[in-house]
Amino acid sequence: MSDSNLFELKIITPERVFYEGQVSMVEFNTTEGEIGIYKMHIPTTVIIEPGILTITEPEGPKNAALHAGFAEILPEKVTILAEIVEWPSEIDLERAEKAKSRAEERLSHKESSLDVQRANIALRKAICRINTLK
Amino acid sequence: MASMRDIKRRRTSVQSTQQITKAMKLVSTVKLQRAKTRAMQSKTYFNSMYQTVTNLLAKAKGTASIYTDVQPSPRKAVIVLTSNRGLAGGYNSNVVKMVMQSGISQEDADIYAIGRKGREALERRGYTIREDFSELADEFEYADAIKVSNQVMKSYEAGEVGEVYLAYTNFKNTVSHVPTLLKLLPILPEDTQEESVDDGLMMNFEPQDEEALKMIIPKYVSSLLHGALVEALASENGARMQAMDNATNNAEEMIEGLTLKYNRARQGSITQELTEIIAGAEAIS
After folding, report:
1. A42 CB near a chain B CB, below 8 Å?
2. What's the rounded Cα separation, in Å, for the pair B27 and B244?
3. What is the CATH topology of the domain spanning B35-242?
4. CB spacing of A17 vs B41 below 8 angstroms
5. pLDDT tens digit string along B249-262?
6. Whole-prediction pTM value?
7. Could you tell me the residue ranges of all domains in chain B?
């Protein structure tokens, strides 16, 4: 009975299978806003934005930093194709802080539109990394 | 008949060549193992990616998008994956040959070279080398694949090129590597098979189809490129391993022949010396 709210979650990166297991809920950030998914979700494909990924396992929640990719949601199964995803233990806080200040600096003197866009993404990634560690 | 010293010198030289080829074979065997595991791991990602994209395309059929329509520009971008180093049998020349026979004319091709050997060969034959990312042929991460594919996507989106191809060596297994020319863009509806669509599920896309297409296609291209890079690396090492194995065997054969020749020459010279001594002794007595 207690198992019935579990579904299969698979997180794949180009280099490895990042996570595979039975979970009760998964939360992450998408282009449409932050979403949380339970079992029996309507089939949907969403695009991921940098944010914290929370995997709720029967034993408790787990966090990771998820930066880019997309997710395929099916009633019984969620597959996240992640381009970049990291466990908190894999994050280098110092590097993230540095990247954050660098991106902020770049945003403060406005140059061409492309640079701003890139700096924005970098800033969001850095903030997401730092938040995951907190 | 060659003198004993000449044969001996020749044999030593072949022996030291054999040592080198043997060492190279061992090195590429180890590298092949690593590349093979990597190729296996990236396959899961690629398969899911392919599934999603076919689903999406089947659903988005009819929506006009620069990724799914024929483009006016006659220029074609070709990403060519070869190795930086030679001594890999026909590995590099097969890829180059395939590009030349693909029907893409020299004037229309913009080559994005990953791998020094392919770049040099195509440059010599008069192809335009648009960009060179050769440093990625040996060492690359997913981020590098994104970087290259973004560059190519940019010129595709700007209309500078009308078609994008990927030339690489498909790693079937350790002994069989097939040079493959893959059309990346545009993805015409008739090019994709619709096998995955009929699983009874209607997939929703958030954001809407068109938007989603715009975001997923670049990811699709970079995942394909990454997959190709991984496979090319495995193929390169597989090809080199085979080539070096052949070289080692050939050297073995040569050494055998030379040893035989050397022994004969040695025997001959001993016999000759003996004959001379006996003849000399007889003359004195």
Report:
1. yes
2. 10
3. Pyruvate Kinase; Chain: A, domain 1 (3.40.1380)
4. yes
5. 999 999 999 999 99
6. 0.80
7. 35-242
